[in-house]
Amino acid sequence: MQKINFKQSPLAWFCAVLFAMSVFSPQAQALPRGGAYVYIVYTMKYKKVKKTLKAAIPSSIKAKFYNADLLTVADYSGKQKAVSKFERAQLVVFIGDETIKLLEGSELKIPVLIVNSGLQDVKSRKVVTYLFDKAHASAAPSGLSKTSLATAAELKPGTVGEKDAVVIIGQKDDAFWKEVAAVVEKLLAR
Predict the structure, then answer these.
(1) Is the pLDDT of residue 31 over 50?
(2) Across the strands, what pairs with 65?
């Protein structure tokens, strides 16, 4: 095998640059082909929830889980890196107050689902849906339309996805997190 001399071969440089651009470009890292794509942002406090959601989300949805405890957002650029990563998805789901506090002041260009947190410190240029179980319903932000349901199956088109809204599902524990997966599926189907 002959060694390539990059100093003397412009063609070798061109091929190397072209290869690097194809591997590292945003288009190469864009949405996967086929199926929906969602980022689920959690903390180690919700490690069990991650497992439940992973099992409950249909295979047609490509879910990426992001442990926010590992996020270094001490400066503005750390937040921006996280936000740009999330914006590659079609929906981002934040679980609990801790994930919202880490990205406080951020605005995403994609729809956002905030689960069991009434904090309004993360915004979306499209729509924010707040989803609560019975135990956390009192933390719901005021001033938004509220819908109470027994299960996600009762969620009617137009209830969420068009304007910021609050949805309360009368479930708790694992049953609630399975309903979260169903809400994610409905939001992505829009």
Answers:
(1) no
(2) 40
Closest listed residue to residue 129, CA positions, set 100, 105, 103, 94: 94
Kindly state the average pLDDT of the residues 74-102: 86
Beta strands in the chain (DSSP E): 36-42, 61-67, 91-95, 107-108, 112-115, 123-124, 128-132, 145-149, 165-169
Share of the chain above pLDDT 90, in %: 52
Task: Classify burial at 78, counting beta carbons within 10 Å of its beta carbon; exposed 0-12, middle 13-18, buried 19 or more.
Answer: middle
Alpha-carbon distance 175 to 53, whole Å? 10
**Global pTM value:** 0.78
User: What is the sign of the dihedral through the CA atoms of 67, 40, 131 and 77?
Assistant: positive
